[in-house]
Specification:
The protein is of the alpha+beta class. The chain has five helices and six strands, in the order H-H-H-H-E-E-H-E-E-E-E.
């Protein structure tokens, strides 16, 4: 190789190294944190009778949870139901035991919007709510999007899944604090 080829290779190596050192930074510079959504669901002005039945059942479930009515909840919850919380996922037996013991006391659900979709024997309920609860002896209020999945069995709706997804919006309820 002659000297000019060697110098050209060195320059090319330096340019390559410079480009490689900038590339990992490029995605960081290009990314911006998107603004959180301000509203994610809206309550429809009217509902079908089936949709209203599921909405009413969901509201009754919140009342039963606040009142720790585990016998009523045991009938509503499917034996294979799963409950996803901020601290973990567990089944029907653990959820009922947690409610009965007061490990989580669902004091009040302030629901701001509800959306229900029915697909044959399955209904999916989304609720934008603030939940005031006592967890480990401490009262907390968190904004959640709660997803409930119901399945109609022998003419009755049974809860198959309940998931709490914490929202980035501030708490709207005036009761309690986080």
């Amino acid at each position: 190789m002659d000297i000019r080829s060697t110098q050209g290779m060195k320059r090319l190596s330096l340019l390559g190294a410079a480009a490689m050192s900038v590339l990992p930074m490029q995605p960081l510079l290009a990314q911006q944190t998107p603004a959180p959504p301000t509203e994610t669901i809206k309550t429809a002005a009217t509902h079908t009778p089936t949709e209203q039945q599921v909405i009413d059942l969901s509201k009754t479930k919140w009342d039963w949870m606040a009142d720790k009515k585990v016998d009523s909840l045991a009938t509503l919850f499917d034996d294979r139901a799963m409950f996803t919380h901020m601290g973990g996922t567990w089944g029907k037996t653990q959820e009922l035991a947690t409610i009965q013991s007061g490990g989580i006391w669902y004091k009040e659900a302030s629901i701001y919007a509800v959306d229900v979709r029915v697909f044959g024997n399955t209904a999916i309920v989304l609720e934008d709510l603030d939940l005031e609860a006592v967890v480990g002896g401490r009262t907390v209020t968190n904004p959640f999007m709660v997803t409930e999945v119901y399945n109609k069995q022998a003419g009755k709706w049974r809860l198959a899944q309940l998931t709490f997804s914490r929202l980035v919006r501030p708490v709207k309820a005036s009761a309690g604090s986080n």
